[in-house]
């Protein structure tokens, strides 16, 4: 879309991932003048840049029942648009959860359509170079432009706005950080790869190959999932590394190189051992590494693992969390902790509001949560919901409704959460 040159707006959203998209669209639909900044040419964050190929956290956590969407508004709308665009009738069951397979290119297109329809000013390839406070709000510096706004939403995933403003950023010890994922796609794969019996066989074959020295041990956690596109599969490999630093460019480069090497070795193994991989195309690598955790904001409330497990309700609940605690602190696969009951848990608005700077909101991977709680609420379906809530609250702040309790009450009414 053609960008407006207006430099005074109600709200700037920094980061065009799952949370940032929904924050910008929700705020604009409420009548706010919104600018969305994204440093890459794509919208969708990890869903388009890192090939994260399933929308997790969209559905209620009771798989004994038919799938039911957990969050109204944009999460529901995005699910329906993805189903329509890819020809899916709904989600698939994966163990004890429902997930919706998604196609990264389609997701980018859907996100851009939503943003354009809402009248958001979209700035792609726009790297935020600084944020400062002013008498009336904030000033956001780009390379060749400065934008003044009343409120901000940080959807950057790394809490970059906190760094610019000198606010508190929280990070767990480096050795406990969720491991990154390298995800690539393969086309022209036979339908046999989708069978459960093959996935079980593959897991055993990989164990034997590692024991025999034919593959490195890092390959043991690799998973294979079908894309909505016929013949396409996504392969995910969790990566180890004691010196992993998600915000350091050299660390990301070294880790990405290791991921590509593992991908090439695994592809050769698949072609050699299974006939239905013999015609597969070369691996398609993602534009970015799949980062699961870096920095978080200090909010008015830090969401805890126990609150999610116990299903604690809050007076200012504005989003529902349904994904289990999915810890990936090593490269040997996920360790799941499930909620005490098969029902959604809750996220309060205070976990999306700065404890230190009025008018600053955040959502997605950088919200205010413990390391363990983040392992649940970082998934894309939940990011849609927290982004939507943060965008609505930031729009209200810009429009003069500054009390968090009033914002939460209005959001609950708007979304029908009462």
From TrEMBL:
GO molecular function, one term: oxidoreductase activity
Alphabetic keyword roster: 4Fe-4S, Iron, Iron-sulfur, Metal-binding, Oxidoreductase
UniProt superkingdom: Bacteria
Name of a matching Pfam family: FAD_oxidored
PANTHER family the UniProt entry points to: COB--COM HETERODISULFIDE REDUCTASE IRON-SULFUR SUBUNIT A, FERREDOXIN:COB-COM HETERODISULFIDE REDUCTASE SUBUNIT A
The protein, known as: FAD-dependent oxidoreductase
Naturally occurring in which organism (per UniProt): Oceaniferula flava
Classification of source organism: Bacteria, Pseudomonadati, Verrucomicrobiota, Verrucomicrobiia, Verrucomicrobiales
């Amino acid at each position: 879309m053609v960008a407006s040159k207006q430099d005074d707006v109600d709200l700037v959203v920094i980061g065009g991932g799952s949370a940032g998209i929904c924050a910008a669209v929700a705020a604009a639909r409420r009548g706010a003048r919104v600018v969305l900044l994204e440093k890459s040419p794509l919208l969708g964050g990890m869903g388009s840049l890192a090939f994260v190929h399933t929308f997790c956290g969209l559905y209620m956590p009771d798989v004994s029942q038919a799938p039911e969407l957990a969050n109204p508004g944009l999460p529901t709308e995005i699910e329906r648009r993805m189903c329509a665009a890819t020809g899916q009738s709904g989600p698939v069951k994966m163990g004890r959860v429902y997930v919706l397979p998604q196609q990264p290119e389609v997701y980018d297109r859907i996100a851009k359509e939503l943003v354009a329809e809402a009248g958001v000013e979209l700035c792609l390839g726009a790297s935020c170079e600084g944020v400062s406070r002013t008498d009336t709000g904030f000033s956001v510096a780009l390379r060749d432009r400065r934008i003044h706004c009343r409120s901000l939403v940080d959807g950057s995933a790394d809490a970059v706005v906190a760094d610019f403003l000198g606010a508190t950023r929280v990070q767990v010890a480096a050795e406990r950080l969720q491991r990154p994922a390298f995800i690539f796609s393969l086309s022209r794969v036979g339908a046999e790869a989708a069978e459960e019996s093959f996935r079980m066989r593959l897991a055993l074959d990989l164990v034997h190959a590692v024991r025999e020295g034919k593959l490195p041990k890092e390959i043991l956690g690799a998973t294979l999932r079908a894309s909505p596109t016929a013949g396409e599969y996504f392969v995910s490999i969790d990566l180890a590394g004691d010196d992993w630093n998600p915000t350091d460019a050299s660390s990301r480069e070294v880790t990405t190189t290791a991921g590509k090497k593992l991908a090439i070795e695994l592809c050769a193994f698949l072609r050699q051992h299974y006939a239905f991989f013999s015609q597969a195309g070369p691996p398609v690598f993602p534009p970015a590494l799949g980062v699961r955790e870096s920095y978080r904001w200090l909010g008015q409330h830090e969401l805890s693992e126990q609150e999610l497990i116990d299903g604690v309700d809050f007076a200012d609940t504005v989003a529902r969390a349904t994904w289990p605690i999915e810890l990936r602190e090593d490269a040997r696969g996920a360790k799941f902790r499930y909620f005490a009951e098969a029902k959604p848990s809750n996220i309060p608005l205070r976990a999306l509001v700065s404890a230190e700077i009025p008018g600053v909101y955040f959502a997605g991977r950088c919200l205010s949560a413990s390391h363990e709680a983040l392992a649940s609420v970082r998934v894309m379906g939940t990011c849609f919901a927290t982004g939507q809530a943060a965008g609505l609250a930031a729009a209200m702040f810009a429009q003069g409704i500054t009390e968090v309790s009033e914002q939460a009450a209005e959001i609950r009414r708007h979304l029908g959460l009462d």
